[in-house]
Amino acid sequence: ADEVGFSQAQPFNHFSLGVYQEYEGDRNAEGERHGFGKAQLPNGDTYEGEYERGLRSGRGTYRFKNGALYTGDYLQNKKHGKGVFFYPDGSKYAGDWVHDQRQGYGEYLYANGDTYTGEWANNKRHGQGTYVYKDTGSKYVGAWVNGIQEGPAELIHLNHRFKGRFLNGKPLGHGKFIFDIGCEQHGEYIEPVQVKEIEKEEEEEDEPPLPAEPKWKASEITKLTPHDEEPAPSE
Q1: Which stretches does the entry tag as region Disordered (predicted)?
Q2: Does 155 map to a domain?
Q3: Same domain membership, residue 139 and residue 189
């Protein structure tokens, strides 16, 4: 929420001055908020931290009326730099910000206990990152595009892992399952061919069908390739 002067938001009488303090802190020669100060916004949010020429700039803590809280760097009223955001649902993001967006590198702890650690762009998981599923202990290590698992990656489970490529959050194409017992199964995930119904008139179009799950087609089982084997213990 942008900071707005209380007097601009609604009229108030002299009796309210003793109860409500819009801003308390440093100002420059022009009377702008400049330096360190505390402010309460008309919507109930509060800010305590550094200002520069009337705008939140530098280190500060912003408390939202709904229970959310951000503490970190600001630049011209926007979250910019390093900061931690605590969301009302109990989730938390700690990392880089650019113009109010999660961007750069950071860690997100989700309300269900899952975690993502890696690269961000425009508030979404984007680049290289690791997502850990709390319930199963499995983790996805690899590429992301606009918040979706896409590109080369490994999906690591308790006693085996899949190494291949993902598209739209699902494995697709050639890959292999690597088992801790010392072998690997090669194959590919194939997208099932969808049978098209006879086309209807445009005005009678139905809901689009749900995307079909890719099916695994195994080709061969081999010993671990050298780069996947653990080094033998020296005697």
Answers
A1: 194-235
A2: yes
A3: yes
**Which residues fall within 8 angstroms of residue 188, CB to CB, at 6 or more apart?**
173, 174, 175, 216, 217, 219
Q: What is the pLDDT of residues 4-36, one digit of tens each?
A: 333 333 333 333 333 345 999 999 999 999 999
> Is residue 135 domain-resident?
yes
191-228: pLDDT as tens digits: 887 655 544 445 545 566 666 789 999 989 998 876 65
Q: What are the pLDDT digits (tens) for 98-114?
A: 999 999 999 999 999 99
Residue of 40, 43, 41, 46 whose CA lies nearest to 61: 46
Domain carrying residue 77: 20-100
86 and 132, same domain (yes or no): no
Read off the tokens for 181. 């017992």
List own/partner pairs for 143-152 with CB under 8 A and 24 or more apart.
144/118, 144/119, 146/122
Tokens 């702890």 appear where? 109
Distance CA 22, CA 5 (A): 7
